[in-house]
């Protein structure tokens, strides 16, 4: 029995959404809803020594359920950024912008001049006594390196209600101090802000703590072009996992949406991937150590086979063997590698030469179907079919082999079959390995649905066989696409794909019913 949140009368009834607050009656629950709504989530913020603050599900979360919608505490330009409008954060051109009449910072138009986002650097620049004069627009500009930090430092003045929450966030200042990144940030931000803005408002420690909080808790938000960085309060308490249980989407306002592509059991810890889940383990570990200062020990990272996908493996140096090579130690991707069949060992530099060359060839390659197929043929000597470099090229080919419906209707049968097989293989791989990479999965499901539908059309023209089974398979994948992309805004390509997927889904349902 728990006390009713309104009258304190003992009751067994709890809010069905958060499972944390008790009410003795529906009337009292409705009465308290306005107060309770902002904190009514299917999780609680827990704490322990190892993880610090983290989120724990307070009930079973259903597939596709939204777990959290949250506006940012602060947002601003990425640390490496070309000049952007400091109102809307979209890119601007030398010949197509205005200057704020008070501070000189470039803006895309008068409507962005009064936006709250711009208040921090505008007031600090006015106090400087000299307007900013940005002349170069063609690439990363050093003045923009410090701007998001300035917004964090002045959050108490621009958004007092958010300041206390920002101060709660971890900066890992003691861990970062003395590292190469910290030293670079000290020069480009910590020492630059007082000198450029001619201010003594902030100590070096305050500035570097804000830099740390921004880097540790910042999310890349792709709702602007280029992407900007934003800090979210509650979302910052999600744990990292390279096999997470939450997908992350953004609405057109840049608000974060965390949702569950699969069921999450009660008491499970809620997680997102702080790195890029489609990378191999060595690259993810390196990125996490550089940017978040920790080594991941999630289920995927402690398994060198990456859930038996051998996503990072290479083929045995002995061509007669046919086995796959992986690190000899699960926690050391920089040591020797050993074949799982013949036990032959190679040093790390042998592996690095293969992977470095394979990666550079992808970067320099003109992205055509012919070149993609040549790449697969060449690197099949060293890399297994599900290796991350091979999978990257297969994703490219799935998208290049008939880029729209017109091309799909005339593509050769063998190329259509290739598109279909690669798409099916990739969906199976990434649903196992990266189940929360919803944009990738949604796109692949749409491509697979389209290929199956086109192949069915061709079969139906040539035979009298009923295509119903194949149409149902096409419907199955387009419904998956809709599920994966349902929270994608129409400002993204995936949002437009979602609209077309819904049209295709409804048409297929009608055809199958007939």
Folded structure, characterized:
By secondary structure, the protein is α+β, with helices and mostly antiparallel strands. The protein folds into four domains: 1-40, no CATH class; 74-231, no CATH class; 303-387, no CATH class; 401-513, no CATH class. It contains 18 helices and 18 strands. It has helices at residues 26-36, 119-128, 147-153, 155-158, 160-168, 173-176, 180-190, 192-197, 204-217, 281-291, 348-364, 369-379, 388-400, 405-410, 413-433, 438-462, 468-485, 493-513; strands at 2-3, 10-11, 43-48, 52-57, 66-70, 74-77, 98-99, 106-107, 218-221, 228-231, 239-240, 247-250, 256-259, 271-272, 314-315, 324-329, 332-339, 345-346. A four-stranded antiparallel beta sheet has the order 15-16-17-18. The protein has a three-stranded antiparallel beta sheet with strand order 5-13-12, with no helix packed on it. Strand 7 and strand 8 (106-107) form a beta hairpin. Helix 15 packs antiparallel against helix 16 (438-462). The longest helix is centred in the C-terminal third of the chain and has 25 residues, at 438-462. It starts with a strand and ends with a helix. This is MYND-type domain-containing protein.
Q: How are the strands ordered across the major sheet? A: 15-16-17-18
Largest sheet, if any? 4 strands, antiparallel
What is the oligomeric state here? single chain
Number of domains: 4
Taking pLDDT < 50 over at least 5 consecutive residues as the criterion, the unreliable ranges are none
Mean pLDDT: 95
Secondary structure: helix percent: 40-55%
Structural class: alpha+beta
GO molecular function: zinc ion binding
Pfam family, one: zf-MYND
InterPro entries: SET_dom_sf, SET_SmydA-8, Znf_MYND
Keywords: Metal-binding, Zinc, Zinc-finger
């Amino acid at each position: 029995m728990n006390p009713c949140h309104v009258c304190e009368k003992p009751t067994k009834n709890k809010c069905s959404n958060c499972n944390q607050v008790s009410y003795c009656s529906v009337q009292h629950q409705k009465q308290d809803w306005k107060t309770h709504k902002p904190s009514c989530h299917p999780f609680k913020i827990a704490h322990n020594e190892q993880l610090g603050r983290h989120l724990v599900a307070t009930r079973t979360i259903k597939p596709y359920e939204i777990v959290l919608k949250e506006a940012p505490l602060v947002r601003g330009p990425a640390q490496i950024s070309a000049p952007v409008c400091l109102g809307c954060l979209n890119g601007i051109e030398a010949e197509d912008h205005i200057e704020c009449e008070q501070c000189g910072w470039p803006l895309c138009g008068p409507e962005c001049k009064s936006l709250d986002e711009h208040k921090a650097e505008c007031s600090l620049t006015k106090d400087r006594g000299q307007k900013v004069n940005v002349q170069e627009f063609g690439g990363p500009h050093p003045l923009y390196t410090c701007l998001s930090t300035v917004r964090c430092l002045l959050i108490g003045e621009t958004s007092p209600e958010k300041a206390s929450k920002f101060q709660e966030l971890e900066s890992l200042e003691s861990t970062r101090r003395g590292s190469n990144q910290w030293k670079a940030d000290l020069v480009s931000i910590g020492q630059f802000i007082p000198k450029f803005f001619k201010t003594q408002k902030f100590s070096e420690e305050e500035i570097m703590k804000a830099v740390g909080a921004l880097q540790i808790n910042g999310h890349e938000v792709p709702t602007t072009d280029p992407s900007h960085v934003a800090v979210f309060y509650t979302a910052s308490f999600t744990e990292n996992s390279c096999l997470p249980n939450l997908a992350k989407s953004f609405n057109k306002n840049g608000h974060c949406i965390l949702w569950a592509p699969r069921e999450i059991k009660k008491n499970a810890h809620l997680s997102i991937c702080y790195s890029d889940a489609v990378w191999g383990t060595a690259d993810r570990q390196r990125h996490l150590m550089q940017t978040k200062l920790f080594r991941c020990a999630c289920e995927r990272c402690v398994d060198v086979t990456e859930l038996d996908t051998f996503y990072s493996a290479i083929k045995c140096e002995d061509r007669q063997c046919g086995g796959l090579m992986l690190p000899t130690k699960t926690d050391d991707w920089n040591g020797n590698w050993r074949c799982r069949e013949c036990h032959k060992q190679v040093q790390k530099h042998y592996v690095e030469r293969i992977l470095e060359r394979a990666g550079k060839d992808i970067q320099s390659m003109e992205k055509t179907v012919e070149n993609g197929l040549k790449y697969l043929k060449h690197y099949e000597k060293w890399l297994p079919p599900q290796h991350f470099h091979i999978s990257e090229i297969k994703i490219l080919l799935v998208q290049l082999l008939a880029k729209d419906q017109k091309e799909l209707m005339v593509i050769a049968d063998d190329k259509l079959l290739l598109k279909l097989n690669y798409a099916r293989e990739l969906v199976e791989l990434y649903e196992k390995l990266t189940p929360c990479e919803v944009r990738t999965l949604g796109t692949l499901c749409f491509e697979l649905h389209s290929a199956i539908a086109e192949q069915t059309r061709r079969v139906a023209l040539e035979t009298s066989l009923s295509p119903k089974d194949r149409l149902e398979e096409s419907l199955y994948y387009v419904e998956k696409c809709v599920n994966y992309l349902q929270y994608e805004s129409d400002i993204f390509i995936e949002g437009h794909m979602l609209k077309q997927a819904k049209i295709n889904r409804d048409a297929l349902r009608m055809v199958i019913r007939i």
